[in-house]
Design a protein that fits this description.
Layout lengths: L1 H27 L2 H11 L1 E4 L3 E4 L4 E5 L6 E5 L17 E5 L2 H4 L9 H4 L4 E2 L2 E2 L1 E4 L7 H12 L5 E7 L9 H4 L6 H9 L4 H14 L1 H30 L23 H9 L48 H17 L2 E6 L4 H8 L8 H11 L6 E2 L9 E2 L5 E2 L14 H15 L7
Parallel strand pairs: 5-8, 5-9, 9-10, 10-11
Antiparallel strand pairs: 1-2, 3-4, 6-7, 12-13
């Protein structure tokens, strides 16, 4: 009896702690947690593609670090933006991930919304935004299949291909971050994934505390991967053993350490004092006045002289090919044009291209384009248009490539969305775009 009584009071105590934590988090509204809380509340669970947008929800979202803020509204169909589909009106759909959905700007400033009313083949289009963050090719297909069945008179679908669908920059891959399609392939093999995901999604949407615990766990996993890589690099540079995580970094030979103890100790504890430049013949011509276009390649970006041939690159993963083909088949079945679009969203490839070079991060675009073009589907690419990312605005203020992207985030700023919309408008005036 005493044990049962103690267990009851212990359980009651845990409940009180949980409720107290819940109330405290709700009242304090920490900016960092509130940002993720707002994002959670504008999303909903979908049984087929797991994550959708909550129909009828509307929130003013502020990034916890002040990088962006704006109104985030969702219509009755679960599409970004307050505008409802107009029956009978020819429709242009924007399909993709968070870039398309419009992280970084308010409802009226997403590039999809800026395309609303565009004239294509003599007819005006209503632009509707199907974008949802964290979609790979699987999620994009099921999202398109779901929403297109609820709309009439769909004429064109702009499918924005993300580099993270089937490829991942080496730096992120070493932190344990997988491409979306690789993650989806693992999920499809797990019969319990959908049930478990639904369970945790609903609980973390209900509870502040559970969402905070989930965020803390995910951040701990990322920090662990980063720490592991950092320690591995240090031991490798000291010559103790070869860090396997560094294999494949180009100049490094697999299986061979990159340094030795003496050079490691010298570089760690001794620094040469830089001598001041006392040359009296310093020329003021080093100052740059006006727009410098194209912008020079930053020192941390390494370009190559030319792109590889498409035949030398690996083919797309099987799951990616499967769902790309399903999109093509769906377009034929429904009678709309599928228009794959590749917007340059990695600044390294933009800097390199505008200086007559190439960056390997662009390989994903070559691989995806080859798949669609072999099947007679034209892909819209916008490398040439990136030259307009440098110049002066009407007020005489200089802008450059970095002004189009949110720092350390990668999504378009308001200027970036305007650039994307203007570039798309020009391309969409061309005929025979796709199926």
């Amino acid at each position: 009896m005493d044990f049962a009584k103690k267990s009851f009071f212990g359980f009651l105590f845990l409940i009180l702690i949980f409720l107290g934590t819940e109330a405290g988090l709700f009242l304090l509204r920490s900016p960092s947690l509130q940002y993720y809380r707002d994002l959670k509340l504008i999303h909903s669970f979908h049984p087929e593609y797991y994550v959708a947008l909550e129909p009828g929800e509307s929130k003013y979202v502020r990034h916890f670090a002040g990088k962006w803020e704006g109104q985030f509204s969702i219509n009755s169909l679960g599409l970004r933006g307050a505008e409802e589909p107009i029956p009978g009106k020819p429709k242009l759909l924007c399909l993709g991930d968070s870039l398309v959905m419009g992280f970084g700007v308010g409802d009226s400033d997403t590039f999809c919304q800026l395309l609303n009313g565009i004239e294509i083949n003599g007819g005006s289009r209503q632009a509707l935004n199907l974008g949802v963050d964290a979609y790979g090719s699987r999620g994009s297909y099921y999202r398109l299949k779901d929403i297109s069945s609820k709309l009439d008179n769909v004429k064109e679908v702009l499918f924005f291909i993300s580099p993270n669908d089937f490829d991942m920059p080496e730096a992120l891959a070493k932190k344990g971050i997988l491409p979306d399609d690789q993650t989806d392939a693992l999920r499809e093999k797990d019969p319990n994934y959908a049930r478990n995901f639904k369970f945790q999604f609903i609980l973390t949407k209900i509870s502040y505390t559970l969402q905070a615990l989930k965020l803390a766990y995910e951040q701990t996993q990322v920090n662990y991967a980063i720490t592991k890589l950092t320690v591995c690099k240090e031991l490798d540079s000291a010559g103790f053993y070869r860090c396997a995580l560094l294999d494949g970094e180009g100049s490094l030979e697999p299986g061979k350490v990159s340094g030795n103890l003496s050079t490691y100790m010298k570089s760690s504890f001794f620094r040469e004092v830089k001598k001041p430049n006392c040359d009296s013949d310093l020329s003021p011509s080093s100052a740059v006045f006006g727009a410098m276009c194209p912008e020079p390649v930053p020192s941390h970006v390494t370009c190559v002289d030319s792109p590889p041939s498409s035949d030398s690159l690996p083919v797309l993963p099987e799951l990616t090919q499967e769902y790309y083909q399903k999109m093509i088949d769906l377009a034929k079945e429904k009678g709309f044009k599928l228009i794959p679009v590749i917007l340059p969203i990695q600044i390294e490839e933009i800097f390199c291209y505008n200086n007559g070079k190439y960056h390997p991060l662009e390989n994903y675009a070559t691989r995806a384009s080859a798949f669609f073009e072999k099947r007679g589907v034209k892909v819209l690419r916008f490398k040439k248009e990136t030259s307009s990312m440098c110049g002066f605005d009407p007020n005489g203020k200089k802008y450059g490539i970095l002004d189009h992207y949110i720092p350390e985030d990668g999504h378009f700023t308001k200027r970036g969305n305007v650039w994307a919309a203007e570039s798309l408008r020009a391309k969409l005036k061309e005929s025979d775009l796709a199926l």
